[in-house]
Predict the structure.
Amino acid sequence: MNILYDDIQFLPGVGPKRADLLKTELNIFTINDLINFIPFRYIDRSKFYTIAELVPAQAAVQIKGRFLRKQTSGIGAKAHLKALFTDGTGTIELTWFKGIKWVDSSIKIGVEYVVFGKVADFHGILSMTHPEIEELQKFNSRPQQDFIGVYPATEKTRKANLNGKVMRSIVESAFAKIGTNILIETLPHYILQELQLPNLETTLRSLHMPTNLNLVSKAQFRIKFEELFWIQLTLAIRKQNNNRTIKGFQFFRNNDNLLPTFYKKHLPFPLTNAQIRVMADIRKDVESGKHMNRLIQGDVGSGKTLVAVLAMLMAIDNGFQACLMAPTEILAQQHAQSLQNLLSDMPINIALLTGSTTKKVRAEIAEGLQNGTINMIVGTHALLEDTVQFQNIGLCVIDEQHRFGVAQRAKLWTKNSTQPHVLVMTATPIPRTLAMTLYGDLDVSIIDELPPGRKPIRTAMLRNSQRQKMYALMREQIAQGRQIYVVYPLIQESERLDFKNLEEGYQTITQVFPAPQYKTVIVHGKMKPAEKNLAMQQFASGEAQIMVATTVIEVGVNVPNATVMVIESAERFGLSQLHQLRGRVGRGGDLSFCILMAGDKLSKDGEARLNAMVETTDGFQLAEMDMKLRGPGDIEGTQQSGLPISFKLANLARDGQILNIARNMAFFIAEKDPTLSNQENFLLKQGLENRKKQNTSWRDIS
Ligand code: ADP
Ligand code: MG
């Protein structure tokens, strides 16, 4: 058995108690886990601060001096040891709540010590809790280590005094135990050489026992590279295999029938240049005989629906069925409605299938799909059910893809003996690095142009005390015949409370804008479909001027006459969500407004987000900012994706360049050796297989 997989408990300095903590708190079970548990930052221990210059801060600092006195007090859980420490420039209070006896016995008054910890300032008294201490003489006798790593910790490990000093000594004994030549390199030699990466052994040793920061940053680079590289390699191989082995339906009749008729007779407006470009991309894909797997990224309102319609007509012209899948019932209904309108005079049979479709209609749809009388179907997740079988599905369009997992996307592929072409559309502009990870195996087209005549949306942030201003704007816009959305956040954990906000908000609005002069409807996810439909229709037809709603309207709702979007407690939304909501207005030719109502407790982060919204309407810029503010893990839709996007060291908000390098390398390798069967790629093949075994989310993407 490889020594690397020995239980952590038997390392010198660990024992059963600490082993338990390491396992439950930090997920460290074996020596291998331990040496892969990497410091996330480094401290310069060659630098000593004077007490006079200390200020409370996040980072730990090191001081040198003598203990003046110490005192133990309290009993049981309240027991603690306080000691006063000085370096001649001032004093600081050091406190321990754990390991008191041991600390007490190791503090000698008058002897010089090195103290290392985080400074706090309590009513003007400087203090450190659970600092590391060491006699200066002993400190000086050790081989000097200027830089030391700071390991991730949890509240429990901190309380148990499993501090950096302990971690470092455990890690050192781990390295002592395994000696050299035990660690097996994970990357092929040619990659290390080409990118000048340190080998695994050097990497891990430099990270845990740093001798200089240059080596540390090389080692960090290697770890980050590797974290990103394995994902990119998975995506690259999948894309290669997709291109090579999966045949697609060839749509060769692209100039007959429905599509040209539509272009000639029914196209409501000329396509934008961006739409024309994307259509050309799609046409090239479907005419090639290869399987299309394309993502269309285009900001809210850029006209993706029309592109979907054109592509679906192409499929039908070639004797295939086409489907359009949307993430919410409302959106599916809207799509069905706009397809009906656009294609009303054409011989196309469009069906709608959602969770609330009745059994009877479902059966009819199932039959129509199987005998081919239905050639276009719009629906929600309901389309994925096994009972939905097509006669000959040739194209699946997935709208607002970020709401579907990769596994779901894959499921659509099995709906025909040959995989239907897949067109994925997303309006959530996501940062480029994230896109490369989430959609790294897709071809990408971008609609970077809005249809002409759109006026920029004016955005303002208002405080509660300025509510009258918002009402004034609403009144004025309604007087001009316009319509208004008022949106409330509804967040799962506190749904009842939020719901109360929504209902109260509705009450207030109906008081300020009383019937019969005004009509206000309310829409939320818990309503019966029929009620929801009625409300939506009343708003869409213009009968109701105000819609009070939750984020169910976030995606896709299209009422061009709506010119005001009021977002209550706006700080509770993420930036991309705010951007989506704002995209609901400004769809007609009229000047539109977005009012962000800030709650009374506005955090710094919240304020930064709202200011960003006021300053820019560029969705991509907002997405980048969102990722910087909240980290990639919180960007909407990433959890559903099931892809690993949080890493030990790599950070998609900051490491775009490393991601590029990893991606280029991965795609280069996949192109040359798509099955990784060359001897030089043996480690890569093995690495991917191990990852698949270990991690369910990895299984999903390959
Ligand atoms: P999204 O990309 O957000 O799905 P939609 O497809 O809903 O956008 O389109 C937004 C609006 O723009 C719709 O009202 C649509 O009719 C209109 N639109 C789409 N393409 C064009 C165009 N080429 N010229 C003018 N208006 C267009
Ligand atoms: Mg859309």
In short: Residues 213-245 form the longest helix (33 residues). The longest strand covers residues 61-73. The chain is about 40% helix and 15% strand.
